[in-house]
Amino acid sequence: NLLEDLISMNKKPIGVFISGRGSNLESIINACKDENFPAKVVCVFSDNANAAGLQFASKNNIDTHTLDLNNFESKGHYEEEILKLLKPYNIELICLAGYMKIITDKLINSFPNRIINIHPSLLPKFKGLNTHQRALDAQEVESGCSVHYVNSKVDDGKIIMQTSVAIEKTDNADTLSKKVLKAEHELYPASIIKLLRK
Length: 198
Ligand code: GRF
Description:
Elements: H1 2-8, E1 12-18, H2 23-32, E2 39-46, H3 53-59, E3 63-66, H4 75-86, E4 93-96, H5 105-110, E5 115-119, H6 131-137, E6 142-149, E7 159-166, H7 173-196
Parallel strand pairs: 1-2, 1-4, 2-3, 4-5
Antiparallel strand pairs: 5-6, 6-7
The protein binds 5-O-phosphono-beta-D-ribofuranosylamine.
């Protein structure tokens, strides 16, 4: 079975949660193709059935699951269903990659210190949305991205790794987001290596 195969290859099963484009998901899936990478994405979950990233996962023969929060009585019930979906995969780590729902204690307590997120700023600066415009408005000379543990507050939790990116006078939110995204695509796989390679 898949789990035994992964163990023999020294790869840990991980899950990725997305809501949209999925470029970070892509970078993680591509990193996993290296036999020395310590993980393999075994399932992708999305709260949005139209998330573009789901197609990339399917093309790579990775199971995808979607659940619409609107069909559930509460976030608690929603997350209970997510936990049921994840159970058979024996996931070591959940990587949030552009997942736009706040995670509650139900999920967090089921995966203690095993849920991580990527955020496009040098946390603790610029939690939340529109990070690039806010960094420019604050006249920062650098920005970047952070991978951090997830707790029940938005973009909070201990930082695992960060990459900084210089802000040039000519940068706007669009050019800055592209530079940071490029850094994100290296930082997320690097952080997974840091956490899983023992
Ligand atoms: C990334 O900038 C990530 O840092 C943020 O949401 C964006 C997701 O992009 N949390 P993608 O879906 O991975 O392309």
